[in-house]
Amino acid sequence: MTETVLVLGGGQAGAQAAASLRQEGFGGRILLIGAEPLLPYQRPPLSKAFLAGELPRERLLIKPEAFYRQADIEPMLGVAATALDVQARHLSLDDGRRLAFDRLLLATGGRPRPLDCPGADHSRLHYLRTVADVEHLRRHFHTGARLVIIGAGYIGLEVAAVAAKHGLRVTVLEAAPRALARVTSPEVSAFFQRIHTEAGVEIRCNTGVVRIEGTADLARVITGDGAGLDADLVLAGIGLLPNVELAQSAGIACDNGILVDELGNTSAAGILAAGDCANHPNAIYGCRFRLESVHNAIEQAKTAAATMAGKRKPYAQVPWFWSDQYDIKLQTAGINRGYDSVVVRGDPATRSFAVFYLLGERLLAVDAINRPAEFIAARTLIPRRAAVDATRLADDAVPVKDLLA
Ligand SMILES: Cc1cc2nc3c(=O)[nH]c(=O)nc-3n(C[C@H](O)[C@H](O)[C@H](O)COP(=O)(O)OP(=O)(O)OC[C@H]3O[C@@H](n4cnc5c(N)ncnc54)[C@H](O)[C@@H]3O)c2cc1C
After folding, report:
1. Ligand 1-lining residues (CB < 6 angstroms)
2. pLDDT band at 204 (very low <50, low <70, confident <90, very high)
3. In ligand 1, which atom is closest to the CA atom of 112?
């Protein structure tokens, strides 16, 4: 009998898993189910070139429509799964259909964490996760418009950069003492705060939002210190909630994401998970992570597809991530959690430097700012777990290739 694999979630991980299943030789039926009406598309440009109007919508697609036809992958778009029966092995959809499966991949991603304060339903308050979100946001993206961004994380700062270039008047409110506090060091935070300030963006740290007031056309953002900021547009970029509810209510183990093993298996036989929704063990770091990055979504999907095709390709990757702001490309390799020292190579004033994160003599991660060679070197050094020489790392005169010796 023909086997059926359901891939739930038409995002980066879902698209990759469907394609990789065919590459791994799976000859059964593949259904790719997605709540959004579009074929799987890349999200990173949503806060960069697509928001800036420099990339047409068609160029966002991960694979063209013809690919799915040729690979015999059946997309089912604009339909959401509402219930999962692990024992009976079927998935219920919001259009009343019930799909039987042999194996199921949960690639349900996440949704923006909602702002939790009075006035959070204001019509000028936006989030950024989907093409539809960008299209709403763009309606008010005009020169001179006042934009208040809540949260100085990557998405907030990328939007700030695009908006500043478009002549909007941008204020970023951050509850923590510095921008990017959850993900990077004070050195890198200070650098990004400086380049935004130079571009005319005002960043207010230690500033929480207590409520949003105003009329339908104008929001007034009230902060903890009693100040009020008028805004034509408000964007909240305060993190992501993984979409785990379907798995959770089906009895699948979850803890900050759907728990998977190194092959992508969840606690339920024949059900796997990958991407932003999955919490996986990382052999290089010896602990669990739930990551939100394209590289992670792609690589976990490849692992899960191999498992579903009866092969064994354990996930053991150095995570990496990038962010584009103005003329700056930040590339991060590894996870800096638990570092006890930093080594700075190069001069932040030149807009080209790298910050290495060490635990003892072991390299955990790097933030490379306009420094692709250091980024690539770190991806080689991190999994070696060998001792690195901090003095040589810091010395810009030592060629990067010699750091690998
Ligand atoms: C604005 C923005 C900028 C980013 N920039 C970068 C970057 O520069 N670099 C980087 O590495 N990463 C970046 N990311 C993160 C990256 O895009 C994500 O990590 C990646 O998209 C995760 O892929 P995924 O398939 O796990 O989830 P998603 O892409 O979120 O896809 C999940 C899909 O599942 C669907 N779904 C959920 N539940 C159901 C259901 N019950 N039924 C049917 N469908 C369902 C959702 O509608 C969604 O379409 C960015 C993300 C955003 C939003």
Report:
1. 8-14, 33-36, 43-44, 46-47, 80-81, 107-110, 128-129, 155, 243, 246, 275-276, 292-295, 297, 321-323
2. very high
3. 53
